[in-house]
Design brief:
Oligomer: single chain
Number of domains: 1
Order of helices and strands: HHHH
Distance between the termini: 47 Å
Helix content: over 70%
Number of helices: 4
Radius of gyration: 18 Å
Strand content: under 5%
Largest sheet: none
Number of strands: 0
Structural class: mainly alpha
Length: 113
């Protein structure tokens, strides 16, 4: 097996190639679905690219808003597809690490009373 796959399995504490394959499938589906959902969600919220056409750096702001809105959708889809492919535990731990890194760690730290 390729060294980078072995390193990835060790880093993520993955036991089998099958589990690694399922994780890659979940990442692929999540990315594809989040891109497909982005436009309808943005349109529903009233953000479409044409609305920014007359603004200075309008395209830049549109894409920044799109990324900000897509981020939580991506995170939810990651958990959803992880659940569907029986990889919920892996993706829940990954989500907690991501949320801690963006400053929401207070929701996941254990309190000692």
């Amino acid at each position: 097996m390729k060294k980078w796959l072995t390193n990835l399995k060790n880093k993520w504490n993955i036991k089998s190639n099958y589990q690694l394959f399922l994780i890659f499938v979940v990442f692929g589906l999540t990315g594809s679905f989040s891109l497909k959902l982005a436009k309808p969600v943005l349109n529903f919220l009233g953000f479409n690219q044409e609305a920014f056409a007359n603004f200075f750096l309008g395209d830049f702001f549109y894409w920044c808003i799109r990324l900000i809105i897509i981020f939580p959708i991506y995170q939810l889809l990651l958990i959803f597809f992880g659940f569907l492919f029986f990889q919920f535990a892996f993706f829940w731990e990954l989500e907690k690490k991501i949320l801690i890194k963006i400053g929401l760690g207070k929701f996941f730290t254990k309190k000692n009373h």
